[in-house]
Amino acid sequence: MTPAQCGNGHAHREAGGEEVPQDDDTVLQSFSGVVLKRSSSDAGWPGSLQCTKSALSWLPQEGGPPALALPFTEIAMHAVVSGTGDQAACLYLQLAGGDSDYEDEAEEEGEGASEVWLIPSDPALVEPLFAALSEGAERNPDDGEEGEDEEGGIFFDEEEVLAGTDAALHRLEIEEALGGDPNRFSDADEDEEGM
Amino acid sequence: MLFYSYFKTLVGKEITVDLKNDLSITGTLHSVDQYLNIKLNNIKLANPAKYPHMLSVRNCFIRGSVVRYVQLPPGSVDVELLHDATRREARGG
């Protein structure tokens, strides 16, 4: 993968001058000098980070652990960790795993790495990194496989809601039928013939 | 879009977000988008002992799809209004 300049989101141009649409491998942002940690006790390893349309990829410098390709859909949460005396400012990521059973998986796999730390050698990169991850999440929403229907996953008590609806419609029907005479509920006059 | 519109009215208020992985984060709502991705500032954890390395976290971005519950400040919920709006959406209005 050829490293690209920061912020280069332009379409490529072929030799013939035609525009080629941006593909999923286009690097949108890149950050060099980023140390990756997979657990809090990890010493971490330096490498470089790139953001494509749908994933984050980290490539190690000179040997070290395998490269990491992380779809943005798998990042449950990311946050800026302030620098302290012991530790430089960095980005903390919690991973989701993507399955309904991911909680079990994360606990079973020792190496499941449900947490990731990204530590830039230049602390000024922490905020741009946070922004890049936020934009990645925004570009990659779930595609509604969770049975979105029209409610968008909103849960409500159907009986309660429909009961309210029925009552309101019932009131409207009665109003129409009676023609809205304000005196319709008045007592009968006393001198009128009773039943 | 109902809850997106509703959450926008809560920007600046303190809420607690319960994630599906049982992490519970309280913070000031900074922003929300149509996918209910949530940005919180000045966060604190409900159970800090479980994630000690989150002590010095100030701001976070939570992916909408991993949210289980959002706990709202009691005074800022107009239950009647929400019920009415939800019924209208359920009827397709």
Provide a brief overview of the structure.
The complex is a heterodimer of chains A (195) and B (93). Chain A has 195 residues and is an alpha+beta fold.
Can you tag this structure with a few keywords?
A: 195 residues, alpha+beta, PH-domain like, 7-stranded antiparallel sheet, two-stranded antiparallel ribbon, B: 93 residues, SH3 type barrels, 5-stranded antiparallel sheet, 37% strand, elongated
Please explain how this structure is put together.
Chain A is 22% helix and 25% strand. Chain A is an alpha+beta fold and 195 residues long. Chain A has a domain at 29-102 and 110-139: Pleckstrin-homology domain (PH domain)/Phosphotyrosine-binding domain (PTB) (PH-domain like, Roll), CATH 2.30.29. A 7-stranded antiparallel sheet of chain A has the order 6-5-4-3-9-8-7, covered by helices on one side. Chain A has a two-stranded antiparallel ribbon with strand order 1-2. The longest helix of chain A is centred in the C-terminal third of the chain and has 21 residues, at 158-178. With 93 residues, chain B is of the alpha+beta class. Chain B has one domain (2-91): SH3 type barrels (Roll). Chain B has helices spanning 2-8, 79-90; strands spanning 14-19, 24-32, 38-45, 57-62, 67-71. In chain B, strands 4-3-2-1-5 form a 5-stranded antiparallel sheet. Chain B is elongated and about 45 Å long. Chain A: InterPro entries: ICln/Lot5/Saf5, PH-like_dom_sf. Chain A: Residues 143-156 have a biased composition (Acidic residues).
